[in-house]
Amino acid sequence: MNPIPQLYKQWQSLQPLNPKLERDINQQFMIDFNYNSNHLEGNTLTYGQTKLLLLFGDTIGNASMQDYEEMKAHNVGLELMKTEAKDKSRTLSENFIRELNHTILVRDFYKTSPDGDYRYKIHVGVYKTRPNSVITPTGELFDYASPEETPSLMSDLVEWYRNEEQRGQLKVEELAALFHYRYIRIHPFEDGNGRIARLLVNYILLRNNYPMLVIRTDDRKNYLKALHLCDQLSGKIPYNGAHATLQQTKPLVDYISAILENKLTMLIQFVKGEIPEFIEAKEVEKNDTVKLENGTVKPENDTVNEIFEGVKIKIEGVKDKLNQELGIIYDFIKEKPLVKINSIEKHIQKSNKTVKRYLKILKDNGLIEYVGSDKTGGYKVL
Fold first, then answer.
1. Residue 32 belongs to what domain range?
2. What is residue 368's three-state secondary structure?
3. How far apart are CA 174 and CA 167, in angstroms?
4. What count of other Cβ atoms lies within 10 Å of the Cβ of residue 210?
5. What is the DSSP string of 110-179?
6. For the chain, what is the domain count?
7. pTM for this structure?
8. Would you state the pLDDT for residue 283?
9. Where residue 179 sits, what CATH number does that domain have?
C-alpha cells in the first residue's frame, strides 16, 4: 500500500503552519537543496560554506569564486522556479526551462575540450549544438538526443506534461519521476541538465502543493543506479528514452517515492514537535569516507593536501607527493568515466598544463586511456 496519500492528507491537515516554523522549514530546504544539487555536479563548497554564503553572503574558505557564483545563481534559479510553480495561471513552457538554464549558469562561458587542445563556447539558455553522451560502467558509449532532434523532443516533452497536468491521472511522484527521466534522456543543454531536472521535479511537487525534496549527494550511487535501471528498460535509442513509459521508469518512480515519503514523515514529526530538527543534507567532512566498487575506502572530498586512501598509484621514479596527486586523478576518472580535462582541473585545482602532464604520465604507464571523439569523448581507467 502506498503511504504517500495518507501522509499528504496528514500534512495538509497541519496547514497553515506557524509563520516562523514555515520560514525555518523553507530556509533549511534552501540550504540543503542548493548544497546537494550542486555538490552532485562537482561543486566544492562545503555544507558550512554553502550555509554562510546563502544566509550571510560570506565567501569564507579556499573554494573557487566560480563555485560561489554557481551556488548563488542556483539559489536564484530555485526562487524563480518557486515563483513559476505557484502561478497557476501559467503552465510549463520551453521558454521557462531555457530561462532557468540561463539563470543558474549566469552567462556564456568557455570549456576546454577533453584532450585540452581547444576551447569552445557554452551558450547558456540555448539548446545544445554539440552531441553529448556518457560512458557506461561497461565502457559503452550512451548517447543523449542529438542537437537536431532536441527541439522537437523538448516540444513533445512540454506538451505531454501540460496534457498530463490537465488529466491529473498520474500520481505526483509518478509525474515528477517520469518528467525527470524523459528530460535527462534528451539532455537539451550543454551544461546544467542535472540541476535543471531536479529543479523541475520540485516545480511539479510544489505546483501540486507537495513539499519539495532533496536528492542527497551521499545517496548519489542509488540515484544514478535508478536512472541506469530506467536506461536498461527503455533502451539506448534517445527517442525511446525521451518517450519512456511509466513502467520503464519504475526504478526512478520508486526512488522519488521513497524520498517523498520520508520527507512527508519528517515534516509531520517536526511540526508536531516529535523531532527537534531535520536536515536533508549530510555534510561531507574531511574524514568522511565512502566505499568504492573496488572495496577500497577514500575521503569523499579528498584534495591534494589531504591523505589519499583510495587506489594506490606507485610509479617508479615519481615522488610520493606526485604519486598521491596521480592517485587522486586516477580515482576521479574511475568514479566518473569519460571525464573531461576541465573537470579534472577543477577537482585537483591545478592548471591545464599540469593536468595534461599528469594525464600523460598515467597514459604512458597504461593506467588510463582517452575514449571517443574530441567533442564527446573523455578519459577512463584501463
1. 4-271
2. strand
3. 13
4. 20
5. EEE-TTSS-EEEE-TTS--SS--EEE-TTS-EEE---TTTHHHHHHHHHHHHHHHHHH--S-HHHHHHHH
6. 2
7. 0.75
8. 55
9. 1.10.3290.10
